[in-house]
Amino acid sequence: MAVYTNNYLGLPGLDYVQDAGLAFATILKVTREGKVHKKVDGTPGSLEFRYTSSGGKIEFNPNNPFRGPTIGRPNAQELEKISIKYKV
Amino acid sequence: MTPIFGYDAVVSLIVDAVAYPIFCATDMALRVKQDVVLATTASSGIARHKRLRGLYEWSVTTSGLTKINNSDGQISFFYLLQESVRGVQQTIQIDFSDAEGNDHSISGTVIIPELGINGPATDWSTADITFEGTGEFSMAAVDPPEPAACEQEDTLYIDAVAGQTSVHHDLLEQDGVVILSVARTGDTLYATNGTPGSLQFLADLPNGDIHIDPTVPFNSGEWVAVEYKIES
Description:
heterodimer, A: mainly beta, four-stranded antiparallel β-sheet, four-stranded mixed β-sheet, globular, B: eight-stranded antiparallel β-sheet
């Protein structure tokens, strides 16, 4: 077993991150802007996420997409930070 | 444990019970060759079977720069070249060590079937020598490998009961549980050994409980994420 932590910047307007490296992994911890999120099976709400194993996809509350400008090149400081700890 | 660097593999000649490095060696090789006999039978299928006869031979070769005499504590090629030295059995010792101070030593009686020195016009002279073991070599036993400690790591999401100040999970009652992180409805809590205050938790592991600030009980819909591992 190996444990890894991947950090992402949320793409403005999206409500998920997807990474083939997360496929078929065990998700240990997901934080968005430093807030730990709870794993759920249904549509995620506030402070919740849903993991799709086959696609390596972590979805957040669809009513709260990642902030930031959806037009033009965003400043990294403006983007939301997502940290995913997982084991494979 | 770190790998052995070549510099830390030293071949020495034993003279009057003292080990002296042979040459200023830059290379060494130890070879062990075991006698193998065929053991194929009519029922062996299409692959040959083999077995060991129980006999083996071993040899050590080393090469490097050398000096005229042994005055600096290294065995000179010319010392070994003497009939009184190369013509009789000798005892050698090979010492391996690593950067962490671990070491291993192999020693045995040898004869010297071959040695030589060359002198390229524009480079240092290098000497080489072959030692062939006569009889068994000796070394300390090396322990067999042990399975690495098994670690399981996982995360529990425990729904809290409104008004309570702790959560419980049976998996946290297991032996060897180590709490890696605790979060209360998104907020990371920090471990304490006393009564937890704001943003603190107390793990009561034998009972599988995580206690939070007793003055701020859970509200409806709150949950606790417990990241833990089990060390065995």
